[in-house]
Amino acid sequence: MKNLFTKISLLLGMILLTGLSLWSQDGGSQATIADEEKAQIRFNGLGRTIINRTEIGGEILASDSSTVGQVTDGEFLLDLKVNATPNKSSEVQAILRLRNEFGGFFGAGQSIEVRELWARGIIADFVKYRVGDMDLAMSPYTLFSPDEEGFVNKPGVFQPLKQVIDYEQFYTDENTRRLQGGKIDFGLNFGSVLEDMEVSSFIARIRGTDFTTIPNRLITGGQLDLSTVTFDDSLGIKADVGFNLIHTFDDLQSGNAVTGIRNTVYTVDYDLTVLDKDNMSLNLAGESGRSEVKRAERITDNEGTEENVTIEGTEEDDTFMDVGLTFKLKKQKLTISASYIDIGPDFFSMGAQSKRIEFENNEFRNNKTYYDRIGTNRLERQVSLFDLSRDRELYTFRTADRLMAYDPRYSNTLPYGDATPNRKGLKFGVHYGEEMDKINAWVDGAFLTEIRGQGTTELKDFTLIKAAADFNIHQFLDWKNMIKATFGVQYESTTRGGGEFEVVDLNSTLIDLGLEVEIFSKFDLLLGAKLFNSEGRDYVPILTGFNDVQDFPAPLVFDDEETMLGLGIKYEFKKDIYMTLQYNHFESVLGTDNPDNYDFQQFFVLYNMEF
To answer: Mean pLDDT, 10 residues at a time, over the chain (611 residues)?
Structure first.
C-alpha cells in the first residue's frame, strides 16, 4: 500500500510540476487565460456514497437456519480526475480512486488505486494519437460490446444502480470496449468522387502473462472508411464504405506457454443512400465478412533451439452477411427498417461476441453480492432480475476466447448480440419520435432459425419481439413539472420439433413499467416494476475449445416468475448531483409451492456527485 501511495504521489507531482513549468514558460503572471499555449490543470471527478440494507425471506428459509436474515453493506468512494493540457497539442489525464467500505474503520477496507490513465494529442496537425486507457468500438461483428439482458426500457427508479454498474464497468451508449494500449487516427479530404477518407488503427493488451503457462494476449485492428460525394443532387445518392480488420493473438514469446490462439475477423460495411429528400430518405446498408481461428504453436528443433511461432492450420472459419433497408419519414419522425442476416455456425469474433454478464460462476466472476448461496444444501442461487439490475460482481468488460455462458430465460435468440453465430432470418424495427417528444416509441423484432442443429438435425426456431414507449405526460397537459411514464415489453419464443429428447419449447416475457413525477422543482417521486415469467424447456450445450459442442446436460426446465417493485424519491441539487432513497421488493417463484421460493427486500440511499 505504501509503495502504491508513493507511486500515485509521484504521478500527481509530475503532472503538477509539468503544468507549472509550462505555465511559467508562457510568461508567468503576465500570461492570460486566452493564451492557447498556457498549460491548464483541471480537477474534477465523481463522489459516491451508497448504503444498502437487504433482507431475505420466503419459503426457502423455513428449513434454512444458517442464512443470515439481513445484511448491510455500502461504500464511500471518490474518483479524483486530474486533467492537464501542457499545450494545445497534447493532453494527459489520470483518475485516482479512494474507496472505503461501509464499516471500515482505522484503515480497514480502504483502497487507493489508479482507475484510469491516458495521454492523447495531435502530431503535425494531422495524426491524432492516444496511449493508455481508451474506449473503442468498430462494427457489431468486429469490436463491440452488446447490450446486456434483463432490460427493455429502464424505469427511472431502477436507473441509479444500473448507472453505477455502467460507470464501474466502463460501459457507454456507443457499445465501446475498455482497452489499454495505443491508437492513431487521421483523415484525408478529396475533391472528386471521394469526399473524404478516415483511417484508424490500434493495438492493446487484453490479458497479461503469468510468465509461465499464460502468455500475453493482444488485440489489434483498424478501420478504413471512405465517403463519396453526392452523385445526384436531385436524389441525394452517395455511399459510405468501410473496411474493418481485427486480430487477436497470444504472444508465445512471453512466458512458457507452447500453444495459443489466433482470431482474425475482416469485414466490409456499407451505407448506400438511395434517396435523400427533405421529407424522406432510403438507405441500403449492411456488413459482410469472414472469421478465422487458428492455433499457434512454439516448437523446438532437435538441438533444443527454439524456433519462431508457427501456425498449424485453420481450426475454424466461417462467414456472415447482414443486409437491409432503412426508410425514414423525417417530418413524421418515423423510421422503418428490415434486414436479413446469415451468421455462420463457426463464425467467431472475440471482440464482438464477449458478453457483459458472467452467468457462469468461474474464475472471472466473484460471488454474487447478495446471498450467493441459500437453502439447507447451500446451493448457488441462480441469477435473477434483482442481480442483473444492481450487482456489479456479475458484470465484466473482458474479452473471452470462447462463447460465454448465457441464460436462455433472458435471451435466447441473440444472446451474443448481432454477432450471435448459427442464426439466419429476418430482423425488423419501427421507431417513432425523439427523446423529448410527447411520445417516443419503438418496436424491434426477429424471426430466426438455426443454420446447423446442435446434437440433432432438427433446428431451433426463434421469435423475438421488443417494444418500448416513453410518454411525456406533462406535455399533453401543458404542465411545467415533469410527469413521465415508461413502458417496455420483450417476448421471446424458442421451439424445436423432433423426438422426446429433441423437443424444445421455451417462452419468456419481460415487462418494464415506470413512472416519474416531479412533485416540485428537482424533487421526483419514482415508481417502477419489472415483471418476468419463463416457462418451458431448452437444451443449452456445454462448449469446449473454439465453440465446439462437448456435451448436452439434462434439459433445462423452467416455470419461473419474478416480480420486482421499486418506490423512491430523488432530489437533484444541481445537474449530476443528486440523492435518492429507495425501497425495492423482489420475489422469485420457481413453481407453485416450491420450497426454494424466496424474496428480497432492500432499502438503500445513494448520493452521487459529479464535479
So the answer is: 42 39 34 49 95 92 83 93 93 95 69 94 95 97 96 94 96 96 95 91 93 90 95 90 96 82 96 95 97 83 56 78 98 97 96 94 86 86 93 93 92 96 97 93 98 92 98 92 96 94 95 96 96 94 73 86 97 95 95 83 96 90
> What residues contact residue 301 under an 8 Å CB cut-off, 6+ apart?
307
Question: Which residue, 224, 295, 221, is CA-closest to 265?
Answer: 221
Amino acid at 23: W
Q: Report the candidate in 9, 309, 364 with the shortest Cα–Cα distance to residue 169.
A: 364
Cell reading at 391 = 450487482
| Alpha helices by DSSP H, 26-181 | 159-168
Domain ranges of the chain: 1-29+37-54+65-117, 126-610
HSE value, Cβ hemisphere, 13 Å, CA-based, for 92: 12
At the topology level, CATH places domain 126-610 in: Maltoporin; Chain A (2.40.170)
Please count the residues of the chain.
611
Cβ count within 10 A of residue 427: 21
Read off the pTM: 0.89
N-term to C-term CA, the chain: 27
Q: Which residue has the cell 454477432?
A: 419
- Pull the grid cell for residue 132: 493508455
* Residues 42 and 83: beta-carbon distance below 8 Å: yes
- Kindly state the cell numbers that stand for 487: 413502458
120 Cβ partners below 8 Å, 6+ apart? 90, 91, 92, 128, 129, 130, 131
Whether the CB-CB separation of 360 and 274 falls below 8 Å is answered with no
**What sections of 272-372 are H helices per DSSP?**
350-353
Grid cell digits, residue 397: 468488460
In 3D, which of 167, 149, 201, 208 has the Cα closest to residue 397?
Answer: 167
